[in-house]
Amino acid sequence: MTHRFDPTSLREYDIRGIVGKTLGTADAYAIGRGFATHVRRAGGTRVAVGWDGRVSSVSLRDELVRGLTESGVDVVRTGLGPTPMLYFAEATLEVDGAVQITGSHNPADYNGFKMVLQHGPFFGEQIQSIGKMAEEGDWEEGTGEVTDADIEDLYVDRLFAGYSGGEFRIGWDNGNGAGGRILEKLVARLPGEHHMLYTEIDGSFPNHHPDPTEEKNLVDLKKLVAEKGLDFGIAFDGDADRIGAIDGQGRVVWGDQILSILAEPVLRAEPGSTIIADVKASQALYDRIAELGGKPLMWKTGHSLIKVKMKETNSPLAGEMSGHIFFRHEWYGFDDALYAAIRLIGAVRAMGGSLTAIKDRMPELVNTPEMRFQVDESRKFAVVDEILDRLETEGADVNRTDGARVNTADGWWLLRASNTQDVLVARAEAKDQVGLDRLLGQIDHQLALSGLKRGPQAGH
């Protein structure tokens, strides 16, 4: 038996698509067969499977499990919950791999699969190989068993064990995502006063889109914090592996700013260690890490790539602009927004008790949100290379870690090709608006030389 995937669904870091159009139950079965084959060939026998609250998750789960067992792998179903709960299961149960069925922060009609093999991310070529195996029917055969493990309370216990936060008044927005039940159980044990929004897990996301990195999705949380006069607010994405935060005045504390706060107690515990952030992060973050005696390391965007780099550099903490935060210090190295929230509360307490005051002390910079625009797939990487070559000929100060990040007297700008879509991503940051306009002028000039212009914004 063979199977062909929609080519858009097999992506760099996960498998994702629109259910019934680019992703369906036949794909789930083929993923199960292919992933189980990888597990068997690596000497493994058991896989944990978790799923989020999307309408399509249960039917995809059943076919995934059928595929896994028919390739001779035993399955432990860990239940409906956030992606990090599945990562926790993989780290603590005796399994050789894990699959979470989740559409993350995508719209309600999307779903997908995030995978872990032998404690490392399963990505890139490995994901592409699932497609090749399916086309050739190159699968192991066998009959695996299915069991259920209830790890919810163990996970909550472990999250709570990391709490050193004192008493705060906090607003929480779960956005109807898969972290709802865990959040309710966790908050019930935290001291202080807590107000929660949208903890009910609902895959149609009736209140707002579950992506806390876009300010428009934080409106309800801002209102809650303002009305109740709370200390600060915390929000999660659809599968609770990305965190967002606002201070007591409703100002957004962005992903790189959250990381700069979290880095402080970590660098006290592990002086001189390497803290990793992606190429979209503010220069202020890298400067702050250095100021605290840490080694700042700029790395490529993508949760799989960051996890690999952390192991390599023995880094205790890493983060992405998109709100993925990874702790290896007192944790397992995976991105977990619920755990990041616990550590954020602790860091705020250790740094004087006011997130608003911490935000006040951060340097005033003006920056653009992430600008994304459509570009032909065949030109996507070529354009970035052309721009890099021109800049280097001109003697510009360029970092090529992931695309082009260019430093000038005004600040910096970034242009990189998305690994997951036919878009270019640009961002710029300066000390003032005049400087920012100059940086944007440079981006537009370079694009024009490559026959492109910064067009209308492409969606996620």
Structural features, described:
The protein has 460 residues and is α/β, with parallel strands linked by helices. The chain folds into 3 domains: 136 residues, Alpha-D-Glucose-1,6-Bisphosphate, subunit A, domain 3 (Alpha-D-Glucose-1,6-Bisphosphate, Chain A, domain 3, 3-Layer(aba) Sandwich); 208 residues, 3-Layer(aba) Sandwich (Alpha-D-Glucose-1,6-Bisphosphate, Chain A, domain 3), CATH 3.40.120; 84 residues, 2-Layer Sandwich (TATA-Binding Protein). The chain is built from 14 helices and 22 strands. The strands form 4 sheets. Strands 1, 2, 3, 4, 5, 6 and 7 form a 7-stranded mixed sheet that branches. Strands 17, 18, 19, 20, 21 and 22 form a 6-stranded antiparallel sheet that branches. Helix 8 runs parallel beside helix 9.
CATH class of the largest domain: Alpha Beta
Distance between the termini: 34 Å
Major sheet: 7 strands, mixed
What's the total count of β strands? 22
User: What portion of residues belong to β-strands?
Assistant: 15-25%
Superfamily (CATH H level) name of the largest domain: Alpha-D-Glucose-1,6-Bisphosphate, subunit A, domain 3
Shape, principal axes of CA atoms: globular
Structural class: alpha/beta
Task: Describe the protein's topology.
Layout: E1 15-18, H1 25-41, E2 46-51, H2 57-70, E3 74-80, H3 83-92, E4 97-101, E5 110-117, E6 120-121, H4 125-136, E7 146-148, H5 152-161, E8 168-173, H6 180-187, E9 192-197, H7 219-228, E10 232-236, E11 243-246, E12 252-253, H8 255-269, E13 274-278, H9 283-291, E14 295-299, H10 303-313, E15 317-319, E16 325-327, H11 337-350, H12 355-361, E17 366-367, E18 371-374, H13 377-394, E19 397-399, E20 404-408, E21 411-417, E22 423-430, H14 433-449
Parallel strand pairs: 2-3, 2-4, 3-7, 8-9, 8-10, 13-14, 13-15
Antiparallel strand pairs: 1-5, 4-5, 5-6, 10-11, 11-12, 15-16, 17-22, 18-22, 19-20, 20-21, 21-22
Helix pairs in contact: 1-2, 1-4, 8-9, 8-11
